[in-house]
Amino acid sequence: MNVCLDSWAVIEWLEDRPSAALVEKAIASRPVISLVNVCEVLYIISKKHGEKASNQVLPALRQKLRFVEVNQDLAVSAAKIKATYKMALGDAFCVATALAHNAKIYTGDPEIIRAQGNWKVQDLR
User: Tell me, what's the pLDDT at 1?
Assistant: First the structure.
């Protein structure tokens, strides 16, 4: 089974929070992540720990994860998801990425979990 990481899961891993071990196990298979979600991770790290920390995180993420670029198909899919379910735009891109790669989403984000769409979710909470 392919895995798609949400920014929630990556932050858990980076900050060694309770779900970090589950995310670490998934990282062994080099999961996918939307570049929109990478952006979320970087701005969260930058706000909490400064730009230098954010710049140091990017190469590690690039090495361990498969970045999925936003193209027209992904944007259209995310737009349909956002229009149908109550969730943030970044979450819609995570779901669209997971669907495009037939992947299970690793997250603790309530918006993705509660939506109960036609995607697979591993609740890390």
Answer: 76
The CATH architecture annotation of domain 2-123 reads: 3-Layer(aba) Sandwich (3.40)
Q: Read off the pLDDT of each residue in 27-50 and give the average, rounded to a whole number.
A: 97
Judge whether 92 and 81 are in contact, CB under 8 Å: yes
What are the extents of the domains in the chain? 2-123
Q: How confident is the model at residue 116 (pLDDT cuts 50, 70, 90)?
A: confident
AA letter at 112: I
> How many other C-beta atoms can be found within 10 angstroms of the C-beta atom of residue 54?
17
DSSP state of 71: -
Any residues with CB less than 8 A from the CB of 2 and at least 6 apart, and which?
29, 31, 32, 101, 102, 103, 104
| The two three-digit tokens of residue 116, written as one number | 């109960």
- Widest Cα–Cα separation across the chain: 39
E strand spans, the chain: 2-5, 32-34, 66-68, 103-107, 121-123
Q: Amino acid letter at 78? A: A
